[in-house]
Amino acid sequence: MAKKISPARHGIFLILASLALTTLYPLGYVLITAFRSLHDYAKNPYGLPDAYSLENFTLLFKNYGLGLAARNTILVVGLSLLISLSFSSIAGYALAKYDFPGSKAINISFVAVMLLPSQILIIPIYLLLSKIQLVGHLPGLMFVYIATNIPFGVFFLKATFKGIPDPIIEAARIDGAGFFKTFFLIALPNSIAGLTTIALLQFLGMWNELLYAYLLLPDQTQRLLTPALASIGGRFVSNQPLVAAALCITAGPTLVLLAMSSRFLVRGVTGGIGSS
Amino acid sequence: MTQSVAPLSDLKRSGRGVSKKGSLTRQNNRIGLLATLPAFLVVACLLFLPICYAVGISFYKTDGVTFKFIWLKNYLSIFTSPIVHQVFVTNLKFLIAIPFVILLATLCSVLLYEKIFGWKFFRVVFFLPTVLSTSVIGLMFRSAFSFEGPVNAGLAKLHHAPINFFSSGNTAIFVVLLALIWSGFGYASIILLAGLMAIDPDIFSAAEVDGAGWWQKVRFITVPSIRGQLAFVAIINILYTFTSLFGFIFVMTAGGPLYSTTTLDYLIFQKAFSSNDMGQGSALAILVFGIISALTLTQSRYLTGKARD
């Protein structure tokens, strides 16, 4: 059916466009401000800059250690994601396709802690980690990220693996393929979309996390990006361009990721009850 | 994608598999259990154990180093503390954002559903704030509304005196509410749109044949059909208001002026890590968790309705 172009459709377009503008304008404003010098910004905050400069970015990397923070963040988020996804995909596959005693109880225990808010965990986790001297060390935070991401990961991937037809796996099993062979050769290759979605959701969750990252890595040299951004924002309230540049560095990767993979993300948030 | 399935000729050997079925099942049991073990152990050590520990220390007066058992005193002092009452009311004030989020999201999703030119682009644009950290959003708004920020620069152009938004409770709450609405309606729109797309288009055609106008269709078909999604969005946002405002408050107001923008989750953080009262912090965390669990369970009807797809 060909779409008719009526005045009503123009109206709809206009409303949506103006709503989109309220989302895009602040982001564009921050992006442009990040590439201005403070002097240039002060002359005319709303106009386009006379000259674009990278000085805010070089300042942040040289003097405020954002390079190190970016490195730490990539390390912590990357490793935690890898480990949490490995554990949750293997567990999710077992729960989806193997019927073993205790599977129900294990499944329920994952679901029960899926929506646990971080503020109930932060105090005991801080105390327990400081007891084993892991506060102030990257692995301590990694453990927390791995643990907090596993329950939803298992829940999501269990549902994903359930979608693979049983006969395919049965046939391979009869041929003598064991758990890991069916997992690597059948389950994983047939679930690329689901794996991508959960990886993206969990990446965003860890990258954007503030409370654990701030409290479990109190040392300046161990800072991750989000807490580093928060402290720069607190110290340089009146230097808008500098804060804007820090915002770009922190938010940039997540926005690029969304631009590249919006299909998976939109499916991810509408598919499960997920808001991870 | 079934290339990895064994070729048919191999199925002849299947007899062997069947004869060994008993041992296979036993082996499967063991492997299934072993496969869930790493995930389960991590969760047990870093989620179950800490929760029990949190319940335990909520009965102690402790700064994390010395522990003194004080029965239910932490809970009692929370119930009688005027600050906690004030903070709870502040939390309720932040709920004001939710009707706006839902209204905007309904508008957006109904318009997106018309699939006009560029609707997929708009959908991604509305989704943008969802991938941003609360600290990023919070700092954007704090910068924008700071005394020397662009909003005051705009007011100056209109010959209006600059407003110090973060010096009074009400204006500070207003800015946080704006941030909540700005960052919240996109996610809600996507959820509602998914609900709309599940509606059978024939219902709309039938209504059109009967002479229903656009508004009547929205009022009598669209909104009733997505009641489940609307409820889901409302609950998620309520939970969010009680558990996830920390990032916003931390970078925007640090809870101030005084306690006027302190939320429950921020108060837990303050009690435990600024006043070093880990016991009372835990007690408050458990109470908040109790509130939101009760909320979730009473509304779980809607949640399970959503989980079906």
Shape of chain A: globular
Helix coverage percent of chain A? over 70%
Work out the helix count of chain A.
13
Structurally, the number of domains of chain B stands at 2
Of all chain pairs, the largest interface belongs to:
A-B, 109 and 110 residues
* Structural class by SSE content of chain A: mainly alpha
Looking at CATH, the homologous superfamily of chain A is: MetI-like
What is the straight-line distance between the termini of chain B? 23 Å
Provide the domain count of chain A. Answer: 1
Low-confidence stretches of chain A: 272-276
Sheet/helix structural class of chain B: mainly alpha
| CATH level-two architecture of the largest domain in chain B | Orthogonal Bundle
User: Terminal Cα separation of chain A, in Å?
Assistant: 38 Å
Structure description:
The complex is a heterodimer of chains A (276) and B (309). Chain A has a single domain (63-271), classed as MetI-like (MetI-like fold, Orthogonal Bundle), CATH 1.10.3720.10. Chain A is 75% helix and 0% strand. Chain A is built from 13 helices and no strands. In chain A, helix 1 (7-34) crosses helix 13, helix 7 packs antiparallel against helix 10 (192-207) and helix 12 packs antiparallel against helix 13. The radius of gyration of chain A is 23 Å and the shape is globular. The two termini of chain A are 38 Å apart. Residues 272-276 of chain A have low confidence and may be disordered. Chain B is mostly helical and 309 residues long. Chain B has 2 domains: 21-77, no CATH class; 79-307, Orthogonal Bundle (MetI-like fold). Chain B is built from 16 helices and 2 strands. Chain B has helices at residues 14-19, 21-57, 73-80, 82-94, 97-113, 119-127, 134-144, 150-157, 169-197, 201-209, 214-225, 227-243, 246-252, 264-273, 278-298, 300-307, and strands at 60-62, 67-69. In chain B, strands 1-2 form a two-stranded antiparallel sheet. Residues 1-22 of chain B have low confidence and may be disordered. The interface between A and B is large, with 109 and 110 residues. Chain B: Its main location: membrane. Chain B: Keywords: Cell membrane, Membrane, Transmembrane, Transmembrane helix, Transport.
